[in-house]
Specification:
Largest sheet: 7 strands, antiparallel
CATH topology of the largest domain: Rossmann fold
Structural class: alpha+beta
Radius of gyration: 24 Å
Number of strands: 18
Shape: globular
CATH architecture of the largest domain: 3-Layer(aba) Sandwich
Number of helices: 21
Number of domains: 2
CATH class of the largest domain: Alpha Beta
Strand content: 15-25%
Helix content: 25-40%
CATH superfamily of the largest domain: HUPs
Distance between the termini: 15 Å
């Protein structure tokens, strides 16, 4: 996921582009990229690069001593353009489809008008931005309200470095790689990096909905939050569930329609599973204006429920449906690439699907993703035990939004090297609506199901939910009984598989334990863990055999940590990781 990068250094030798070129190149993993001209002024050195399918500005926009770089999109640009929050700048008319270039102009205009914070509150989109104010000698780093376009930063020699991915910091010649022990503890316990921590001590991920200001002269950092979900007030008074479901459907369909907008040269599509969320997106997607069909892609074993149910749903929409298999052979070798791309934030249990991304990119240019569906939209009968939406739970476990931002969202960075990813469930108006649902409605944890059945009954009344094995339209006692029965049956099948019996569990679209026991993958895992330069023994207890033969989840976490730290510290190992997986251009 190419993006933003820069640093401050008053040494005139920094103006030769070497460091910026190195930062940019570390953000590129497949194919080529498009890069804006590098910027050097008053000791500030910055740049932006985009995947080869995107467009970039061919010059640096500077207005009255203020320069802005942006990575991402805003979906309500037309509404913002007509607001009173913007200064009068040339060429501010909203384009017919989301554009990084236009997003940059909007942010620059809002800053020049003195309305940046109010503007950011009203934006609907996923973006990060950097502003250099030459008059006030300040650098500002900006994240969207959900923090879905990341910015990482560190103070190095009294000056600030920033980039869309931590790996770009390796281009700074005297930057030291030092492991953050708290991150190791969190990752081994929760399988994700938490709060604003990264694997690297001193490197932080900028919080969501935050503007960080770095004063170049004093080196002082100031952070301001411009939006908090906690400020959304719950609806009060008597409520009508049917009316709430109707309003949810209106907002959701509008969100999908806004994110499906594309240029004449682009096609929108989606990853389709047997779950509830991607099915809702497909149901709400407008038919392409050129008369073509929607392209839906499913990854997984051809015998799994995800593929079977996705095929049924795709036929209902008359969508083109393509299935790409998940293959065990060579999985760990391909996963090296995924771990590098995601900055080690996504553990091996979620590192599948890279093999066919080049082929998938030929199906669509814009991919709709269902992140933030069920738990966010009102919960489900047997849903997540993570009861808090933001921060950590009382036990210290990461809340749902931290999980999405620190583990699920980084998994999409690989996809974004090939096509744009848009997330309809995180539309600002839709999010405000579901968070404001009365407490008793959210506590019941069935609103999402009611909303789906109300707005898209043909997609949910009779077609089972993959996770439960039964439709969500069943009466609650019947649903819970059959769900429980199916869970027990699946666990029994996996026990039999563990004993070596040829039993197939249709719930698994990819069998991680089986992949780790495959000869080639297991030999590679042992080689990585037993290397004389291995880093993990300094932070995790146990020998190689105890880790290899122990809990699968822990094995995946240790391997993820070891692989990423070796990628950072060992150029030869990194080079091996960057050998693109089979089928990746």
């Amino acid at each position: 996921m190419p993006g933003l990068f820069g640093y401050i250094d008053e040494d005139v030798l920094s103006c030769d582009d070497q460091i910026l070129r190195g930062m940019r190149d570390l953000l590129i993993y497949v194919g080529g990229c498009k890069s804006e001209p590098f910027y050097h002024k008053d000791g500030v050195h910055a740049g932006y690069c985009a995947p080869s399918y995107a467009t970039v500005d061919q010059y640096t926009n500077e207005v009255d001593g203020v320069v802005c770089w942006c990575d991402g999109e805003i979906y309500n640009a037309d509404e913002l353009t007509k607001s009173s929050l913007l200064a009068s700048l040339p060429s501010i008319a909203a384009p017919s489809f989301p554009s990084t270039q236009h997003t940059k102009k909007l942010i620059l205009s809002a800053y020049k008008s003195g309305n940046l914070m109010d503007f950011l509150v009203k934006t609907d989109g996923y973006f990060s931005a950097v502003i250099h104010d030459t008059k006030n000698q300040q650098i500002k780093l900006i994240t969207d309200r959900f923090g879905f376009r990341p910015l990482f930063y560190a103070v190095h020699n009294g000056k600030i470095i920033w980039a869309s991915e931590c790996k770009a910091f390796l281009a700074i010649s005297d930057f030291r790689i030092c492991v953050d022990r708290q991150s190791v503890d969190d990752f081994m316990k929760y399988a994700e990096l938490c709060d604003d921590l990264t694997w690297l001590d001193g490197v932080r991920m900028l919080d969501a909905a935050t503007v960080l200001t770095f004063d170049i002269q004093s080196g002082i950092i100031k952070k301001e939050r411009y939006w908090l979900a906690e400020e959304i007030k719950p609806l009060t008074g008597k409520v009508n569930i049917s009316e709430l479901c109707e309003e949810w459907g209106r907002l959701f369909k509008l969100s999908v329609a806004e994110r499906a907008v594309c240029s004449d040269a682009e096609r929108s599509g989606l990853f389709l599973s047997g779950g509830l969320d991607s099915r809702a997106i497909l149901a709400a997607m407008p038919e392409p204006s050129n008369g073509s069909k929607i392209n839906a892609v499913t990854q997984g074993d051809s015998r799994c429920d995800d593929v079977r149910l996705a095929s049924v749903v795709a036929q209902m929409k008359r969508a083109n449906h393509t299935v790409f298999p998940q293959e065990i052979d060579g999985w760990l070798e391909r996963a090296l690439f995924g771990i590098w791309v995601t900055d080690g934030a996504v553990d091996l249990t979620s590192q599948q699907g890279t093999k066919y991304l080049a082929a998938i990119s030929k199906c669509f240019d814009i991919c709709m993703n269902g992140i933030g569906g069920g738990p966010l939209q009102g919960g489900r009968v047997l849903g997540s035990s993570r009861v808090q939406e933001h921060g950590r739970t009382d036990s210290g476990e990461p809340g749902l939004q931290m999980l999405r931002r620190r583990a699920i969202r980084p998994a999409l960075w690989i996809d974004e090297a090939y096509f744009k990813v848009r997330m309809p469930f995180f539309d600002s108006d839709l999010y405000n609506f579901v968070i404001a649902l009365p407490r008793e409605v959210r506590a019941a944890r069935t609103f999402y199901w009611h909303a789906l059945l109300h707005n898209f009954p043909e997609y949910y009344k009779d077609i089972p939910w993959q996770q439960a094995g039964v439709p969500i339209s069943l009466p609650k006692p019947v649903f819970e009984a059959r769900f429980f029965y199916n869970r027990v049956k699946c666990r029994f099948k996996r026990k039999l598989q563990g004993w070596g019996l040829p039993v197939h569990d249709s719930k698994l679209y990819f069998d991680v334990p089986a992949a780790l026991h495959q000869k080639g993958n297991r030999e590679l895992a042992r080689t990585i863990l037993s290397d004389k330069n291995a880093i993990w023994p300094n932070y995790v207890s146990g020998g190689v055999n105890s880790v290899l033969n122990g809990n699968t989840k822990m094995l995946c976490r240790v391997l993820t940590f070891e692989i990423y730290m070796r990628q950072l510290s060992d150029p030869q190992f990194r080079k091996r990781s960057l050998n693109a997986p089979d089928g990746v251009d």
